[in-house]
Amino acid sequence: MGKTATLANIGSVADSSLGFRNRIINGAMVIDQRNAGASVTASGSEVYPVDRWVVAAFNATGGGATLTGQQSSTAPTGFNKSIAVTVNGTDTSLGTNDLYEVTQRIEGNNTADLGWGASGAANISLSFWVRSSVTGTYSVGVENSNGTRAYVVTYTISAANTWEYKTFSIPGDTTGTWGTSTGIGIQLRWCLATGTDRVAGAANAWSGGNYIAISSTANPIMGTSGATFYITGVQLEKGATATSFDYRPYGTELGLCQRYYYKQPATAYQSALLDGGSSDYPSIYVTHPVEMRTTPSTTFESFAGFYYNSGSGQASFTPSGGTTGYAGNARVGYSRIAAISNGPGATQVQRSGQWTAQLSFSAEL
């Protein structure tokens, strides 16, 4: 191919050597800012075993089943990490709203070019590696943000505890409403069990509803206590043919994750912040590593207390909450300590009382 032809292909969807083919963030499960490899359990809740990936367990009937998620070094050739999900207890009598799943919600800015919801909507390909201790038929649901459009595909795990590669071609949806901004664009939802509210009449067809399974895939694994489900190498790309996994540099993947979540260590707050006044609370000013998706929520973790100087000398206080705002282009933000035992009026926050203290920011979808 000549130089002119090569330049003409730059920016083309067909030219897979350039750009971000994979709309999934952290598809190889290598980033885990929250847990550093420790396990987390979903019990009537959602948890993040690795960045951008949710494991959810909601049991409306009170059966007591939960899911534990964890970054794992069990992985197929070409990968070194996965998510490992373990079933705790069982749920064989699913209530209407019971739900157990693994999911990623993709920002609309990253799927807007698909043109879904209009004529000419682009096809997509979904591919991933999966492994389970329970063989049988499973499903994945592709949904819009409000659960009014869904496409369910099924796949078979043929051999227990063996990695298998799955690929699907999914036609673009020409109807419905699909987010194209900072909200949810597309949701991918791997069903581990679901009640009848999320069961579609048929697979491989667009339908109007909040569906992640068909009747034969409504409970593939939650009837077996101790069962395991692993997933990695997840890729969603434009076009009808799945291609090889789009590896990105670790630092690039970390930055993509930090748009939605990151932590600041205690050392970032040594000799912090000037914020005086008789009615103001001290504020921690932070330069975010990347522009976050939206104004994040702030969580204080392992804070034993701050020390501040005032007219009467040094004293300590314990933060009990925080609010976050932005200045400028949204990369410079602040976390305002909303409640201090000694009240407002501190003129300088000097340091955290514990080196293990962290301040986390979340702008997850």
User: From the coordinates shown, what is the CATH architecture of the largest domain?
Assistant: Sandwich
Name the helix and strand elements from N-terminus to C-terminus, one letter apiece. HEEEEEEEEEEEEEEEHEEEEEEEEE
Distance between the termini: 43 Å
Would you tell me the overall average pLDDT? 83
Number of helices: 2
How many strands, what sense, and barrel or not for the largest sheet?
7 strands, antiparallel
Q: Key terms for this structure?
A:
single chain, Jelly Rolls, globular, 6-stranded antiparallel sheet, 2 helices, 7-stranded antiparallel sheet, about 375 residues, mainly beta
Written overview of the protein:
This protein is mostly beta strands. It has two domains: 15-257, Galactose-binding domain-like (Jelly Rolls, Sandwich), CATH 2.60.120; 259-362. Helix content is 4%, strand content 40%. It has helices spanning 3-9, 250-258; strands at residues 40-42, 45-50, 53-58, 66-72, 82-88, 99-107, 124-132, 136-143, 150-157, 164-170, 184-194, 199-200, 206-207, 213-214, 228-238, 261-265, 283-287, 297-301, 306-310, 313-317, 322-327, 332-337, 348-352, 358-362. Strands 2-3-6-11-8-9-13 form a seven-stranded antiparallel sheet, with no helix packed on it. Strands 1-4-5-15-7-10 form a six-stranded antiparallel sheet, with no helix packed on it. A three-stranded antiparallel sheet has the order 16-24-18, with no helix packed on it. Strand 19 and strand 20 form a beta hairpin. The radius of gyration is 23 Å and the shape is globular. The two termini are 43 Å apart.
